[in-house]
Amino acid sequence: MLPGGRLLVCGVGLIGGSVAAGLREQGAETIIGVDTDRQALAAAQRAGLIDATGWPDDLGPTDLVLIAVPTLTVASVLAELWDGERGVLAGGAVVTDVASVKQSVLDAALASCGRMPANLVPGHPIAGSERSGVAAARADLFRGHRVILTPVEQTAAAAIDRVRAAWEALGAEVCTMPVADHDRILAMTSHLPHLLAFALVDTLGRVPEHEAVFRFAAGGFRDFTRIASSDPVMWSDIFAANAEAVGGILDALERELDELRALLDAGDREGLRSIFTRAKALRDTHVIGASSRD
Asked: What is the pLDDT of residue 86?
């Protein structure tokens, strides 16, 4: 998978640390960490996830670089990797990322490099946790989950194959998708649910009896709001980068809420039941059914 090469993880948090842990189990011999958080690097070294720290000067075509930093920080990393056509990207190391929004990665690459480097393979693992940081890293985090790659016309097939092989070694199912489709679909399936969870917890936290609300919250509330414990920095970056797509689906949700409010005000049980029945059938078919097939 990494014959004669090294794995360099830029951003040693939950995702970067989990990739390092998983590929270590799969035989990766040399893993290097880069992070502005020295405590995270030290913790990763103590856990045996990385062997060294800092950007090497000699990364080349046999090496694989994973950028696992917050979405809006990817741009500064790509600029450093390009370094006036003398850096890692120009040297041929295969580079991929894990950002939840892909158009921003393409925009950053074009701004830094003036073109899309053939060895840059944008990617996004559909896996994670409300926990963050290297202490939460797990070698099996991606097992049974999907990873979406969004290569463009200029992306080299050999680079795609290298990245695909790495994710498959971690037990992930790899698929490809156009950038615009990825950002629109993830706005609906991931970004909007997180926005709703954050909004609900914040709303209830503002009511006078909020302490009692949280004290007596049942399992459904905990399940629905679990993702509100996610990293605020990471998610504010995601929403800023994918604001147009999230705004579009938020408009549709607002229309749905207006309809529900009208049914509530009218005491229309049949109307409510119709929406609930349709939603249940859709979830049972497309979510529960898909989970049983995975």
From this structure: 60
Instruction: Using DSSP, state whether 279 is helix, strand or coil.
Output: helix
Give exposure, 139-169, as e/b (b: 16+ Cβ within 10 Å): bebbeebebbbbbeeebbeebbebbbebbeb
Assign a CATH topology to domain 7-177. Rossmann fold (3.40.50)
Q: Residue 66 — φ and ψ, nearest 5°?
A: -110, 120
Q: Give residue-wise pLDDT tens across range 29-62.
A: 899 999 999 999 999 999 999 999 998 888 888 9
What distance in Å separates the CA atoms of residue 17 and residue 23, rounded to the nearest whole number?
Answer: 10
Assigned CATH for 182-293: 1.10.3660.10
Q: Do 7-177 and 182-293 come out as alike in CATH topology?
A: no
**Residue 274 has which token pair?**
């119709």
pLDDT digits (tens, 9 = 90+) for 90-129: 678 899 999 999 999 999 999 988 889 999 999 999 987 7
Tokens of 249: 């689906």
The pairing of strands 146-149 and 173-176 is parallel
pLDDT in tens, 161-180: 999 999 999 999 999 999 99
CB neighbourhood size of 135 (10 A):
13
Tell me which residue of 8, 64, 65 sits closest to 41, measured CA to CA.
8
**pLDDT confidence bin for 184, thresholds 50/70/90:** very high
